[in-house]
Design a protein that fits this description.
- This protein is α/β, with parallel strands linked by helices.
- It has 9 helices and 12 strands.
- The chain has a 6-stranded mixed beta sheet, sandwiched between helices.
- A hairpin with a 2-residue loop joins strand 11 and strand 12.
- Helix 3 crosses helix 4, helix 3 runs parallel beside helix 5 and helix 5 runs parallel beside helix 6.
Length: 267
């Protein structure tokens, strides 16, 4: 279990009144969220509640329509000139994104590259780092995610759980200050979920700041410092996992948790 993080100093992620629409569909309706260094924040909510869109907005895979998102004090995606936001150039946004690792539902590995090459790709191509230095880091990361024996394998030779662990190592190879996880176990067979969650537990214990979209209630209760329940593009309820999951106050939260627990039991 992670020790509760002392909320001192400035938040690493500071989101203020974030809104986002796709045509007439208002996906985010004024989201406020602070995430402090070393915290693990879990976003819960039904499909379509805005969780994935929100974390994609943090690293500017989606543009926001209103509000502001700061990561480590830096306004993401925009320059604020006298209160007027000006969109940054793609190259500048890409530079901001280097400090944020993201793990998706799908692994998105290069099928024609080995596991080691997949992990080494971004630090060399994006950051221009020394190949030998990156290779040593990549080998260490593969050991960390339990794949020390797989550097020469290709993604097609791996299970889904192994591929997702490679994807985590690949994100860590960029030495990010923040890790975003978008339902990282949802595409996996049930028996492979545990091995990915074990890696995420170790990451949390090491002090990595993480925002995790998941339906894994055990992980949310054991590992997170803070749980945010979203529905209809708003934050309905948030707080310590013992409170939000163990003693929810809002009817929508109670209904969602009943459904998820019923699915877990029937599964």
């Amino acid at each position: 279990m992670s020790t509760p993080t002392l909320r001192t100093g400035e938040p690493l992620v500071h989101a203020v009144n974030v809104s986002k629409s796709f045509h007439d569909n208002h996906v985010l309706r004024g989201i406020d969220l602070d995430v402090y260094p070393g915290q693990v924040v879990v976003l819960l909510g039904p499909s379509g509640s805005g969780k994935t869109t929100f974390i994609r907005c943090i690293n500017q895979l989606e543009t926001i329509d209103g509000g502001r998102i700061f990561v480590d004090g830096e306004l993401m995606g925009y320059a604020d000139k006298g209160g007027v936001l000006h969109r940054l150039k793609d190259k500048e946004i890409a530079a901001q994104r280097r400090d944020i690792g993201m793990v998706f539902q799908r692994f998105n590995l290069f099928p024609h590259k080995t596991v080691l090459e997949n992990v080494m790709e971004a630090p060399i191509k994006v950051k221009g780092e020394n190949r030998k230095v990156v290779e040593e880091r990549a080998i260490a990361l593969l050991g960390r995610v339990g794949l020390a024996d797989k550097p020469a394998a290709y993604p097609g030779q791996l299970s889904g759980g192994q591929q997702q662990r490679v994807a985590i190592a690949r994100a860590l190879a960029m030495q990010p200050k923040l890790m975003l996880f978008d339902e990282p176990t949802s595409a996996l067979d049930p028996e492979l979920v545990g091995e990915v969650l074990a890696v995420m537990r170790e990451l949390a214990a090491s002090g990595m700041t993480m925002i995790v979209v998941t339906h894994e209630m055990g992980f949310a209760k054991e590992v997170s410092d803070h749980v945010v329940f979203m529905d209809g593009g708003v934050v309905v309820e948030e707080g310590h996992p013992n409170d939000v999951i163990g003693n929810p106050q809002h009817e929508r939260t109670k209904l969602f948790l009943r459904r998820v627990l019923a699915e877990d039991e029937s599964g």
